[in-house]
Amino acid sequence: MSAHCCGHDHDHGAASASPAYRRVLWLALAINFAMFGVEIGAGLAAQSASLLADSLDFLGDAANYGISLFVLGMALHWRARASLLKAASMGAFGLWVAVTTIQHALAGTVPEAPVMGAVGALAFAANLGVAAMLWRWRDGDSNMRSVWICTRNDAIGNLAVLAAAAGVFGSGSGWPDYAVAAIMSSLALFGAVQVTRHALEELGQARAAAPAE
Questions:
Q1: Please, are residues 191 and 199 in contact by the beta-carbon 8 Å criterion?
Q2: N-terminal to C-terminal alpha carbon distance within the chain
Q3: Which of 55, 100, 118, 173 is the residue whose CA sits 20 to 30 A from 19?
Q4: Taking the domain 13-209, which CATH number applies?
């Protein structure tokens, strides 16, 4: 994805502060927090690295939606700083998934494929619904952009979990699970770089627009 796919020359504060966007964020927060509870339990029960990774992703997204709600309507530099915080959380998630995947690979853990498939399908439906609600605001400022990127990555990750479940079931090996967890780690790290670049550009714009003292 091009680094220039985001709009950089407009302040979307008014759009992001709209009542409709607030309602969508509150609903997205509730869905993600509920799915975190479902997936953390299923991931531990099934010993699946990809489900555990996805559960932490749901928790991180719930926190990100909460941060986005807090900064809605604030000045551009505050929204950009919030985006930097969210980018840091995305990067930390990516690193955590990488470490967890290595641990499971070294231990040779084989997860329970039926549990992975059922929970992965539920998670995909949840994220697809959230992504559809957020589609209208996908090209906003870095704060809105980061929310969209997180949700998009989640839906892609859910499809990968379903593929991993089929791979584990067919092969009797945990390697499909490890591979998907590695993909999810890469998505999180790439998304963190995208959001950081956009937020830094916005901070530069805010400094340039600030009145000289």
A1: no
A2: 39
A3: 55
A4: 1.20.1510.10
Tell me the per-residue pLDDT of 138-152, one tens digit each, with 9 for 90 and over. Answer: 776 666 776 777 787
Q: Where are the beta strands (DSSP E) in 73-198?
A: none
User: Domains of the chain: which residue ranges?
Assistant: 13-209
- How is 51-71 classified by DSSP, letter by letter? HHHHHHHHHHHHHHHHHHHHH
Q: Which of 31, 42, 62, 40 is nearest to 125 (CA)?
A: 31
| Residue 141 near residue 12 (C-beta atoms within 8 A) | yes
pLDDT in tens, 33-73: 999 999 989 988 888 888 888 887 787 778 777 777 776 66
Look up tokens 């490890």; give the residue: 178
| Helix, strand, coil distribution of the chain in percent, nearest 5 | 85, 0, 15
| CA angle, residues 150, 25, 116, in degrees to nearest 5 | 50
Please give the Cα distance from 20 to 152 (Å, whole number): 20
The tokens of 60 are what?
A: 């991180």
What residue has token string 């998630």? 93
pLDDT, tens digit, 9 for 90 and up, residues 107-164: 888 899 999 999 999 999 999 899 888 888 777 666 677 677 778 777 887 888 899 9
